[in-house]
Amino acid sequence: MTMIRLEGVSKRYGAVVALDKSDLAVDKGEFVTLLGSSGSGKTTLLNVIAGMIAPTTGRVLVDGEDITSLPPNRRNLGMVFQNYALLPHMTIFENIAFPLRIRGVSNAEIRKRVMDVLDIIRLPQIAQRKPRELSGGQQQRVSLARCIVYNPSLILMDEPLGALDRRLREQMQVEIKKIQTESGITMLYVTHDQEEALSMSDRIVLMDNGKILQIGSPSDLYFRPKSLFAATFLGMSNILRGRFTTASGGGICLPGGEEIRLSSETPMTGEIGCAMVRPENVKLAGPDAQPNTNEVVGELVMSVMLGGITNHHVELADGTRLIAQEQTRIDRAPPLRGERIRLRWEASDTIGLPE
Amino acid sequence: MGYVFLILPTLIVVPLSFNAGTELSFPPTSFSLAQYRTYFFESNWWEATVLSFWVGIATMMLSLVLGVPAAYALVRADFPGKKILTLFLLSPILVPVIVVALGVYLYFASIGIKGVALPIVLGHTLIAMPFVVITAMAGMQNVDRNLEVASQIMGAGRLLIFYKVTLPLLRPAIVAGALFSFLISFDEVVIAYFVGRAGFSTLPVKMFGSIQWEISPVIAAISTLLTLLSLGVCLLVAATAKDE
Amino acid sequence: MAIFLAPLWSVLRQSLFDPNFTLNGYSEIIESHLFIKILYNTLQISLTAAFVTLIVGYPIAYHLSRQSPRRRALLLILVMLPFWTSILVKSYAFMVILGQDGIINTVLYSVGLPKIQLLYNRTGVIIGTVHFLVPFVLFPIMTSLLGQNPDLARAAQIMGASRLRIFLRITLPLSLPGVAAGGLLALVQTFGFFITTALLGGRGDLMMANLIDLYTREILNWNLASAVAVTLLALSGGIIFALGRVRGGMSAFGQAA
C-alpha cells in the first residue's frame, strides 16, 4: 500500500532548479533514504513533503489524499532534526506530550502513551529531566519518540545522526532501524552518508544536482548502479574506460587491447563507455595462474592495510589505477612495491556504464 | 582608575543621603534619616514618584506590545526593506531626545490633546521601544527556528507556537526589555519636562527643578533610591539571563 | 509606525510653516549670532567630549577585553550600573564632587592649595559628559578587541615583537573600527545633550538642545525651535550615516542593551 506519492514535483527559484520533476512512491512501513551530497535536492524534496516549501509543479499525496496545499501542521507528519529540536523549557515528558496535547488527548491517555514510547526508546527513567541534561544520542531518541507517540503517517528524518560521533552513530543506526521495523512506521530518511543509507534502508533514492538518479534496494544500487555517478558515489569502484563491443554477449575493449566481458550486453555498442567492478571482486592472480578473460596486468603502487582487509593499488600501463581488496593475511608475504601484478575478476561482477 | 571614575559618582550620593544638615557637605558630619523622612512624608515628592511609576508601567506595556512582535517579525520574516525598517525602528536611540521631546510637544499641541500623561507615555515609548526591540531580537537569536518548524509539523498552529514555544523561550529577553523600558521611562527627564506642566511633574522633572534652583538635600536620598532601583534592575536582568 | 513619524513630521512642518510656508525660521537662525555661537559651542563640546571619552574609555575596554569572561562580567557591572543610573543622579553627584565646597576643593583646601572652579563652566560640562559617554564607546571598542584573533599577537610575540610594538602595530589598528564606531556614537549622543549642560554648565555656555528649550518654553517661538531641531537632526543624521559605513557601527549601539 502506498503511503506517500510524489507526482511530478519540482522546485525552481527563478532560474535555479533546486529540484527537477520527480516521482516517488513510498509504501507503508517502508524505510526509504534520500541519499545525496549537499545541493543534491534531497532537503528540498523533504521540505516539500513537510510543507515547508511549496513545490513549483506537481502533487504530494499521503494515503491517497492530496496534501500539496495543506500547511505543515495539518499534514499529520513527524520530523526529526539534526539538532534534535527539543523544546528546552519543557521536560522530556512535556516534550513528548506536546503533540498529544495539540490533538486534545486526555491526560490519562497522554500519561500512558508517553510512558509507552519512553519504554520503546529504552529511556523510561528520564521523563522529568530537561533536554539539556541528556546526551546527544538520548536527545535524538526522545526526538524520535516525540514523533512515534502521535502515530503520524510518515516520519521525516533530516540527517538525524549528523551531530553524533561515529561510534554513537552506528549504534543509533541499529536502534532506529529496530524501532522502525518493530513499530512498522513509514520513514523517509535524508543523509549524505552512504554507509548509513546502505545499512538502514529498504530502498535508497540517489539524488544529484536536483535530480533523482536511481531508486533501488541497497544491493541494487551497490552492485547494479545505472550511472557512473551512482557507481562512484556508493563505495569504492574500479572504472575502466574503453569502447563497447558485442563480442561474447557484451564486452568492452580497453585501449591496451584487452577485452573485458560484461555481465550483460549493453545497447551502447560502438560507443565509448566504462566497465565498473568493485574492489572486493578483483583478485590477485599468482604468476603461474592460467590466463583468463577479464584480466589486466599492472604494477603495484602501494598496499594499504586497513585491519581485516588490505587494498592493493595497481597502476596499468595506460595510467588507470585499480584497487583489489583482499582479506589481510599474515601467513603470506604481501606483494612488493613495483611488482608486476595480474588482476582478474568475473564477468558477472562487471557492469557496463555510459561515460 | 577608570572604574573609579565610572562608579564613584553613582556611589557618592549614598553617604550624602544620611546627612542631617541642609548643607551640601562631604564627608557627612552626622548620621540621620531626615532626608528619607522628607521624601516619603513631608512634601509632594511621593506624588511625583507615583506618577512616574504609572507612566513607567504604561511605557513598559506599550513598548512590549509593540516591540516584541516587531522584533519577532524582523528576525523571522523575510521581506524587502527589512534592513531599513530595522534601522528605522532603532533610530530613536540615535535621534537626540530633545528633538523627540519637541516633536511630541508640537504633535500633541497640533492635534489639540490636552492631557499630559498620554504624550509623556508615547514619548517614552518612542525612546524605550528600541531597547525592547534590541533585547528581543538578541533573544530571538537563541530561539532555534527548527523548534518552530518542529512544532508546526507536530500539528501546532501559529498562535499556539508563539505562546507555547517562542514566548517562553523569549522570556529572559522580554523580562530584560520590560525592566529596562520601565527604568528608561522612570528616569527620563527631557520629554517629561517638555510636555509636562506645573502640577504634573514626574519625579525626574521635579528633581531637575530642584537641582537647578535650590539643591535640596532630599535629592541625595532620592538619588540613593534611584541608584538602588538601577542596581536592582541590572541584577534582576543578570539573574533571569543566567536562569535560562 | 505612525507614532514614530508623527512627532518628527510635526517638527519638520513647524520649521517650514508658520502658518504659511516660510524659510524665515532657517534664515533667522542662520543670521542669529546666538545660534552660530551655540552651534559652535555644541560642536566644540561634542568633539572635545568624544575625544576625551575615547582616551578614558579605551584603556578600560582594553583591560576588560583581557579578563576572563567571569571577571569581565563582574567588572561590567561597574560599567552597567552608571549606564543605567539616572542622569540627574550623576549630574547631582558631580555637583557634589566638583562644586565650590565640593569634595575636590575640600581636599585641595585642606592640603593648602587654592580652590579651583570646576562647576558651572566648560570643565564641568566636559567631565559630566565624558562620564555619561564612556559606556557607549566602551562596548564597540571591547567588541572589536575581543573579536581579534589572539594568535596574531602570539605569533608576533614569538617573532620577537615587544608588547608595545604588538599593541601599536596589531591590537590598536585592528580595533580602529570599534574606536570609530564608539567615537561617532559619542558624538551623536552629545549633540542632543540638555541636562548636563543645564546643570553643570555656565549660564551662557549653552548647547543646541538648551536653545530649543529656550525658544520653545520661554520665547515661545516654535518656528525657530523647530528650525534648530531640524538642524540638530541633520547633524545627527550625518553621524548616523557615517556610523552605518563603519564596520560593525550599526550593531554597536545595540550592544549597550
Notable characteristics:
heterotrimer; B: 244 residues; mainly alpha; MetI-like fold; 11 helices; C: 257 residues; 13 helices; globular; disordered C terminus
Detailed description of the structure:
The complex is a heterotrimer of chains A (355), B (244) and C (257). Chain A has helices at 42-50, 92-102, 107-120, 136-148, 166-183, 194-200, 218-223, 228-233; strands at residues 2-13, 16-27, 31-35, 57-62, 65-66, 77-80, 154-158, 187-191, 203-208, 211-216, 238-245, 251-253, 259-261, 272-277, 283-285, 295-305, 309-316, 321-327, 340-344, 351-354. Chain A is elongated, with a radius of gyration of 25 Å. In chain A, α2 crosses α3 (107-120), α2 packs parallel to α4 (136-148) and α3 (107-120) crosses α4 (136-148). Chain A folds into two domains: 2-228, 3-Layer(aba) Sandwich (Rossmann fold), CATH 3.40.50; 236-354, OB fold (Dihydrolipoamide Acetyltransferase, E2P), CATH 2.40.50.140. Chain A is of the alpha+beta class and 355 residues long. Chain B has 244 residues and is mainly alpha-helical. Chain B has a single domain, classed as MetI-like fold. Chain B has helices spanning 2-17, 34-42, 45-76, 82-90, 97-110, 117-141, 145-153, 158-187, 190-195, 203-213, 218-243. The longest helix of chain B is centred in the N-terminal third of the chain and has 32 residues, at 45-76. The model of chain B has no long low-confidence stretch (mean pLDDT 84). By secondary structure, chain C is an all-alpha fold. Chain C has a single domain, classed as MetI-like fold (Orthogonal Bundle). In chain C, 77% of the residues lie in helices and 0% in strands. Chain C has 13 helices and no strands. In chain C, α8 runs antiparallel to α9 and α11 runs antiparallel to α12. The model of chain C is unreliable at 253-257 (pLDDT under 50). Classes of the chains: A alpha+beta (355), B mainly alpha (244), C mainly alpha (257). Chains in contact: A-B, B-C.
